[in-house]
């Protein structure tokens, strides 16, 4: 009986503590999220202190509801950092370090996406380059905006001999205004010496960099000028081939 009483006495505080902790966690999770501007300020101070740098840029944009898969308000944060800490460090390690530093801050943010660019001081000795800041712009997403940005950025990056982009949302029963499905054709010297996966990576990297959050599917045909010439000749022969 004494053993049972002692056991109950010892376990009761633990049970109570567990209940209290669970309640506190629930209360914390239901608190209002911090404004994105406040998240930016806190994150910037944290990174400057922990990475010992003054080169931190953080921006955010609010995604159009139609651009988010869950149809709710969603925020995209982008962070640029330059630090001595990143010297001789692989990019994925730099990003993991930065994300872990910011984890406790972004737990208090609204539903969001987060993208990072992390440079070492030997890569950016004079601070940020002008092109580093291009994707910090708070694009306002809406009808035709994504396609316009895509055309501008793809032409600037790949300097194509031929470039074509088509909104194919309607082929999948989706409103064109959502701008979520595109078909593109790029003919560029930039693809020389690159295999298909490498070319696709170049395209996907650009799409991610310019924050095309709403692009769910991108159907790509990527050629060098020589390959495209052969492709056109093959299509012509196929069209001229008499039907049996």
UniProtKB/TrEMBL annotation:
Gene3D superfamilies: BolA-like (3.30.300.90), Phosphatidylinositol 3-kinase Catalytic Subunit, Chain A, domain 1 (3.10.20.90). GO terms for biological process: DNA-templated transcription. It holds the Pfam family BolA. One of its GO terms (cellular component) is cytosol. Keywords: Signal. Residues 1-17 form the signal peptide. The keyword Signal applies. It comes from the Eukaryota. Belongs to the BolA/IbaG family. PANTHER family: BOLA TRANSCRIPTION REGULATOR, BOLA-LIKE PROTEIN 1. This is Uncharacterized protein LOC103514905.
């Amino acid at each position: 009986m004494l053993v049972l009483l002692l056991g109950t006495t010892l376990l009761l505080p633990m049970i109570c503590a567990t209940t209290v902790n669970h309640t506190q966690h629930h209360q914390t999770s239901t608190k209002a999220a911090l404004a994105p501007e406040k998240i930016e300020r806190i994150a910037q101070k944290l990174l400057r202190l922990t990475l010992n740098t003054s080169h931190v840029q953080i921006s955010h944009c609010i995604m159009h509801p139609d651009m988010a898969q869950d149809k709710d308000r969603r925020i995209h944060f982008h962070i640029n950092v330059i630090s001595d800490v990143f010297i001789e460090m692989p990019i994925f390690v730099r990003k993991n370090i930065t994300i872990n530093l910011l984890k406790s801050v972004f737990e208090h943010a609204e539903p969001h996406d987060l993208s990072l660019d992390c440079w070492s001081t030997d890569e950016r000795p004079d601070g940020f380059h002008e092109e580093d800041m291009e994707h910090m712009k708070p694009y306002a997403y809406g009808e035709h905006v994504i396609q316009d940005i895509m055309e501008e950025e793809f032409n600037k990056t790949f300097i194509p001999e031929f470039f074509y982009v088509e909104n194919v949302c309607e082929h999948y029963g989706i409103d064109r205004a959502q701008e979520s499905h595109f078909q593109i054709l790029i003919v560029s010297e930039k693809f020389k010496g690159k295999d298909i996966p490498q070319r696709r990576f170049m395209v996907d990297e650009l799409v991610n960099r310019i924050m095309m959050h709403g692009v769910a599917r991108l159907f790509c045909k990527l050629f060098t000028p020589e390959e495209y010439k052969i492709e056109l000749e093959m299509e012509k022969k196929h069209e001229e081939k008499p039907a049996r």
